[in-house]
Design goal:
Elements: H1 4-12, H2 19-24, H3 30-34, H4 39-55, H5 59-86, H6 100-120, H7 136-158, H8 164-183, H9 195-210, H10 217-229
Helix pairs in contact: 4-5, 4-6, 4-9, 5-6, 5-8, 5-10, 6-7, 6-8, 7-8
Length: 262
Amino acid sequence: MARCPRAVSLLMNWHSLSLSDRFLRWSMDWTLITRLGEAALLLPCAVLLCLWMWNAGQRDSAARWVRICLASSLLTLLSKLAFLGWGLGVPELAFTGVSGHSMLAALVLPALMHHLARASAPLAPAARPGASMLPLKGMAGAAVGIVLAVLVGMSRLALQAHSVSEVVAGLALGFGASFVFLAGCRDIAQRRASRTHLAAVAVLALGITVSRIEIPTQQWLERIVVYLSAKERPFRWPGSAVPAGPARAPAQAHIARYTGMV
């Protein structure tokens, strides 16, 4: 019943909302969905994937995965530091840094779901020269990961944690990095995952998603910025400079809070 006043208010203002806002603000639990993009969940999953490949003898793939994750994370970090420390953003697009939730979800989920799908399938003969780049089950798993990552990006908009430009940048960076990694998996022999591997991923995903475990990345970023920039507090755009119009929807409160939430 606690949701009734919110539902009534939403219906009363329904006519004034754009189609995108109507979709984003309906009854879906975006708070739960956005937790699928938490660093507390996806960073351990990325480590598990690396260890999984290393243990399977796929040392080159594990090393490439580490390099790709580090490069993507570094770009995201630098974009946030650039704004919080020195105000380097794009006011017209309400851009204050790459969305970390969107980037991590787009990077980790397709790769993780691809490997889970392949490893949980019956062992298949080694791929022939010229065969499809990704086995069918692997492609299906990656597609599921892509859908989940897009939902995470939408949740950041619905929760007004990011602007459209920041979410799009995060998804583009994450998907690009994930596809680069998966493109190098064409010659990887299929290895069947142990029940321990599958159970570890399932328990981690369920536990982090439904719990309140979080990594205070935003607070860490602010402390780093204050130290590096020798300023008393992180940068924020003046209230008079907060962009208005389509570029700001639906994250109307985003720049006013100056935060570049991860």
